Amino acid sequence: MPSSQPKPRTAGGPPLSWRLRLTPTISVVLASAVTLLPFSFDAPLLPPLGLMMLLAWRLLRSDIWPLWVGLPLGLVDDLMSGQPVGSAVFLWSAVMLSLDFIDRRIVWRNFWQDWAIATAMLAVALLVGGTLARAGGPIDLVRLLTPQWLLAALLMPLAMRLVGSLDAWRRLR
What pTM value is reported for the model? Predict the structure, then answer.
């Protein structure tokens, strides 16, 4: 006669479903793949959507990824965006290390602090990425990347909202 009581959990617990494991990674890869769409702009206007999704996942759910995840996800972004190979690998790894440092210093954060952290990280990543791509002098670089950074800063709450919805969906039983 089968028992109606649940089985006791083993030390490892039940295996994670595909939604728990793959949703964050797939969302970052799909956001990076937006650069493959045939958009045509005179200046860089499309924000770094893959980095924005990585930041949103890391700020909202710091426990889902190991610290080294910036390396493979940055490589995927480099291959999709056409940036010099290794630039996003370096930048995304540096972002993950910086966020780990911030998490150790600021234990409790609110939405505004997360937004400020993400906006600052995006500004530094865009400036360093533009410097690595040799996009011009410092004044030209700031003038060229300011609209892209402003659009990324304005879209960051939307990315956080999307990540919150994806996180709720991935944890459904």
Answer: 0.86
Domain-wise residue ranges, the chain: 19-30+48-168
* Secondary structure (DSSP) of the chain: ---SSPPPP-SS-SPPPHHHHHHHHHHHHHHHHGGGS----SS--S--HHHHHHHHHHHH-TTSS-GGGHHHHHHHHHHHH-PPTTHHHHHHHHHHHHHHHHHHH--S--HHHHHHHHHHHHHHHHHHHHHHTT-S-HHHHHHHHHHHHHHHHHHHHHHHHHHHHHHHHHT--
- How confident is the model over 110-147, as pLDDT tens digits? 999 999 999 999 999 999 988 887 767 888 888 889 99
